[in-house]
Amino acid sequence: MAAPTAEELREEFLLDPDVAFLNHGSFGACPRPVFERYQWWQRELEREPVDFIVRRLPEELAAARAALGAYVGAAPGDLAFVANATTAVNIAARSLDLRPGDEVLTTDLEYGACDMAWEWVCERAGARYVRAPIPLPLSRPEEVVEAMFAHASERTRVVYVSQVTSSTAIVLPVEAIVQRARGAGWTTIVDGAHAPAQVPVDLAPLGADFYAGNCHKWLGSPKGAGFLHVRPELQERVDAAIVSWGYAPGNGFSERIEMQGTRDCAAWLAVPDAICYQAERDWNEVRARCRALARRARDELTALTGTEPLAPPEMLAQMASVRVPGAGRDLSARLFAENRIEVPVSEEGLLRVSAAAYTTQAEIDRLLAALAR
Ligand SMILES: Cc1ncc(COP(=O)(O)O)c(C=O)c1O
User: Fold this and answer.
1) How far is the CA of 246 from the centre of ligand 1 (A)?
2) What was the pLDDT predicted at 340?
3) pLDDT tens-digit profile of 115-133?
4) Protein residue with least CA distance to atom 4, ligand 1
5) Closest to 161 in 3D by CA, of 84, 220, 92
6) Do 336 and 314 share a structural domain?
7) What DSSP designation does 53 have?
């Protein structure tokens, strides 16, 4: 069976048909069949809240964790669902026993909210958050490793890095970074907010101490489905944001993190449905088509703006960021107001196009035409 076309897939999404939605990256978009399963879970909960939460939920969550574990190459007991990758990064950062003078090594390409979490944690511990400048444009993935570790010191204790960066949309060589950091005896934290279903995620061989991921971006889960993966030997010192029944004797890491009083877990329970949705639609072929579209869009945008690509094609996945000289966030607002094109532009003038399963060349052409005008 051939993979469905972008036009066929667009029919399955709930997106406004008038909008050229080129910003899947920020919050994802959920296909209708998965969204219906999500609402089905919510109705199951409301039919008999006590039966659902007290008697059914533990097993259903275990099944959802097992499906996610099989998908990301992890033991289900090493995974905990959280609301989003920001929560997972926060939990990981706060679990470290940072001391005055310790350094957390990262890049200057990280996501702003997570930078804020790290600055907050480091400030309280008297530690330093060291954002190694990554020289752009890059010509090889190894340049990231070299630039990052040039800022390591005898005070480095932790290495934090994104698998796919946010506004620059670059796939970083996290395997090499984790390997080198672990070799030095440092704790490793990978921010995989953009990774699952956009790039291969295989947590066992990656070997990071902590991995923060999202299912609501590229896996197409409903919003509120993130996860935290922690190596078994570190789990005991990882605390939830809220202490609740998960802390009762006999509970493991997953329960401790997930149980936070009464809550709607439907987005987590729909994760296996999101995995199935893609598996049933030949997602490898869909992804290959999206990658080709992202690369072509990047070439067309750099030709239009007369700017250099930020990284070589092998460091791109389903997003491409291009510098638009003189542009800022107001360009994004104008493109939406005047052309119904949803595309983010950072304060630094980086315009990021997402090539999602439902994205067409015609939508990219609409963006190119609007930018040319
Ligand atoms: C690299 C990175 N980390 C973390 C996040 C935060 O994701 P969420 O809002 O789902 O927590 C994002 C969001 O785009 C991101 O790009």
Assistant:
1) 26
2) 98
3) 999 999 999 999 999 999 9
4) 193
5) 92
6) yes
7) I
Instruction: Give the tens place of pLDDT for each residue, 263-277.
Output: 999 999 999 999 999
pLDDT at 245: 95
Indicate the residue among 250, 276, 302 that finishes a domain.
Answer: 276
| Residue 191 Cα to ligand 1 middle (Å) | 8
- pTM attached to this predicted model: 0.98
Total domain count for the chain? 2
What is the predicted pLDDT for the residue at 248? 95
Best CA proximity match to 344, nearest among 167, 157, 113: 167
By alpha-carbon position, which residue is closest to atom 7 of ligand 1?
A: 85
Would residue 296 count as lying in a domain? yes
Q: Closest ligand 1 atom to the C-alpha of 85?
A: 11
Return the pLDDT at 134.
Answer: 98
Answer whether residue 35 is part of any domain.
Answer: no
- Residue 141 pLDDT level (bands cut at 50, 70, 90): very high
Domain that holds residue 222: 40-276
DSSP single-letter state for residue 247 = G
Q: Looking at residues 156-175, what average pLDDT do you find?
A: 98
Continuous H helices in 13-111: 24-27, 32-47, 49-50, 57-72, 85-94
Closest C-alpha among 91, 73, 51 to residue 234: 91
List pLDDT tens digits, range 333-342: 999 999 999 9
pLDDT for 241: 86
Let me know: does 26 contact 255? Beta carbons within 8 Å. no
196 residue type, one letter:
P
User: Ligand 1 centre and the CA of 127: distance in Å?
Assistant: 23
Same domain, 56 and 13: no
In the predicted model, what is the mean pLDDT of the chain? 97
CA of 149 relative to ligand 1 center, distance in Å: 24
Do 235 and 342 belong to one domain? no
Residues 345 and 211 both lie in one domain: no
* DSSP 3-state of 203: helix
* 11 is a domain residue: yes
CB 161 within 8 A of CB 172: yes
